[in-house]
Amino acid sequence: MRPQAHHTRPPALLPNLAMTDIPDSPTDNDIPKPYNWALQRWRLATIGCVILLAVAAATMVSMMEQFKAQVSHLQTKLKTTQQLKYVAVLLDDKHLPAMLLSFDLQDTYLQVQRLNDVKEGPEESLQLWALDSEGRALSLGVLPPKLKTAQVPVSDKILAQATGLAISVENKGGVTPDRAPSLPYLFTGALIQKAL
Asked: pTM for the complete prediction?
């Protein structure tokens, strides 16, 4: 048997390693830190809250716009809706409704609607009167013949002083303002001021 020879490398072929190049043990800088899940949860929660706040703000703006549109619509509707200030139902001698009268604040006329079939004759006119608390009559005008509805121009001031309304039968064209109505009245009724 042949003695085994130890093969050793010549010193020039070994790498020149300094003691500092070989770590003895891992340092704190070399060990990766464990993942911070708590910090990640806070980040996700913050992003979620920001998204929720953005959605809430957009919803609030949308709701405010819808609210403004509804208010505008209701204001327009209120302007076009009649707001009656005065109402009267004139009764005949049997105490049956004969005429309905209403005064709208937006207009300057009294709306007259016939509720029965009483018609004036060819030589007669129906004249409308405002009556004060003492029974004095102020002519509001002659109603157009044979119409179911009519509009009589009148001011709010005149109606504010009246307590009732009446219809008289007069000669064709009605009586002049300086004359009293023909009595008895055909229809009479209280003028009611409606609370708005």
From this structure: 0.58
